[in-house]
Structure of Bifunctional uridylyltransferase/uridylyl-removing enzyme:
Amino acid sequence: MRLLRDNANLVDGVLRDIWQVAGVPDAASLIAVGGYGRGQLFPNSDVDLLILLAEEPDRPTQQRIERLVGLFWDIGLEVGHSVRTLEECAEESARDVTVQTNLLEARLLAGDAGIFERMLEQQRAALDLPAFFIAKRAEQEQRYNRFNDTPYSLEPNCKEGPGGQRDLQTIVWIALASGLGASWESLATEGLITAEECRELSKAERFLQEVRIRLHLLTRRREDRLLFDHQEALAKALGVSATSTRRASEVMMQRYYLVAKKITQLNTLLLQNFATRILPAGLDAPIPIDDRFCKRQNLLDVFDDSLFTHSPDAILDAFLLLERHDELKGMTARTLRALWQCRGRVDAAFRRKPENRKRFLELFQQPQGITHVFRWMNQYGILGRYIPAFGQIVGQMQHDLFHVYTVDQHILQVMRNVRRMTMDEHAHEYPLCTRLISGLDRHWLLYVAALFHDIAKGRGGDHSKLGMGDARRFCEDHGLSADDTDLVEWLVEHHLTMSQIAQKSDLSDPDVIRGFAALVGDERRLTALYLLTHADIRGTSPKVWNGWKAKLLEDLFLTTQRLLRGDTPVQAKGVSERQHEARTRLRFFGLIENVERALWDELDTVYFMRHDIDEIVWHTRMLYYRPSGGDAVVKARPSQIERGLQVMVYAPDSQDLFKRLCGFFSRHGLSILDAKIHTTRHGYALDSFVLLDPAGDENYRDIVPMIEHDLAERLRTNAPIDKPGTGRLSRQVRHFPITPEVTIRPDERGQYYILSVATADRPGLLFDIASVLADNRVDLHTAKIATLGERAEDTFLISGPDLDATSAIVKLEGALLAKV
């Protein structure tokens, strides 16, 4: 691109002029390396330089070089420089493949041409091409791992991410090392790519260059991430317009994803072609698999390049073979090329053929390879052609502030999570899931449900309802039994239900469990929904899933399972078993028999239904000798489930207690992850909190004494309520704001009211909610704190003397909306 070349040429001239006046000795060279050595310089990129010396510099030479570098910085250049002798260059290059790579594109700017040529000869002689290729391929794999192996994150890195500029540069570096030139045309001449692929690579490269140039100019710094902050302005700068249903940024980002997809395809193809030329072939003779396919170097290959043209049915056979032969690590370059060119043969007639429907269904039923195969099918356009509804959500963004992937990538992540439950090597991650899926009849139906659970996103309306129609048609077309069809359709319809109940409802309420049990109906549906929900939440974002969400889901599953097996709600919660186990554990701590009775007599059944055995034992040990009267008791400990802090507060109850606690925790930079609010029979609050430092900086064990002493002291002296620290909304929330929602409705028994608040998460949010409740004389009984990425969806069980009046509820809703 001309701007990149002109920018590099301008800097070339400036550097040469400074070199001339700096008085550097004749036996030295100023060399451009890295991207700048390529003769391309982005507006705010570093200027990478090597000052090459024939021998170790003396003191005057060192001073001149320091003055030279200082002049570079003084005129405003962002310089990345190194000073090396020829010998040091050789040593560093042998030790670090990054140095070796930078020198591949070295370009002399000024100084001694002879020493520059000696350095080039030295590099060529030392280059071990197979080792270099293997290192660059491994480097790319590690880079992909940092970005979760996908270009489809909502804020991708257009330089380093999969499908970004680094993928193209990796190809160029290997081509240079192989002596094949540095242009796409030269690779086409060598037969590594076709003329059409050459044009596609050039077009994709120009698009990425323009995106990155515009990004640098918009941000006025070196910025390679397509952050939400910049996407709308970037779309405008690129001349992209909004449509009637999508923002300009969404149109632009879908275009970016398609380009990234094309680059990853061609990168895979070229790396395979390079490997064929560079690496020792070994036994290169093809090993037949059947009369159409063979194995070549552990890759699936076709005997005939035109196979998919005259036999489109073989397209699905190719993917089935990958699943059935675990030694196959992918497809050869010519097979991938043939597959891509023939993707259009997957049409309505192809989809109607019974044998193709049978093949497609078999893809879900294999014992291995499912994750990789469905990713490859999406990558090469087959999945979206076979299921047109899936094709509509490829590259579609989700602006709900907790999904960090496009819709298609999220669906594939969920399928991957289901698959990991079946693998022995991942059994330690979630043992219950592994045990349940091993006993689930036809567990492959979960893959089908995962494929369809979000397939109707972006159509308008309830995507769960729309998606269940797609799922039913698929199941009926593919000959699934009525029971299996009903299960898949039901899972798609209710894929959000279990998560909502676990995170927003009071699981100690028997009516909640009864209602959920009535909805699921039997253990097969319960197990399938639990596993799908588990996989779905984990597939949204690494920040959304945590051990507390896992525990809530598991508690709901186990309680409902026992209820379906005939227990009463109290039995299903295991109250008697919990009390018995708690007493047994108390004996291990040296507490005499019945020492817990005084405290437990003040606790009702709801307490034992709401708290697990470990919490009951901890509370009892801390409180058994002071069940009534006395100062506030505050105890804290590192979380028993995952990183975080558990805090117990036992104090005379008051309407502003929750507000006071929220203020204290917020002032110390701690977020409330979970809260269990309980009032004893004699009017004491026994409240339990799970706290987390959002920044991840706290050593929780170190702050336990501070929390225990300071909070107890503030409660004892009735000190003024702490005001939470101020904070800013996140970038995502600023660009995709959430309209706050507040609803208050009576529970099924009419005893309490359920308050639901959905809004953007921010520091001090809970304090503001607690302030409104206290000001309106509302008592809080439970708090379910659910933070989904940047979105807070909190649910509270409340009561109050005025809430029977509609006007009081309207007033309370209005006050909350004004605060959140």
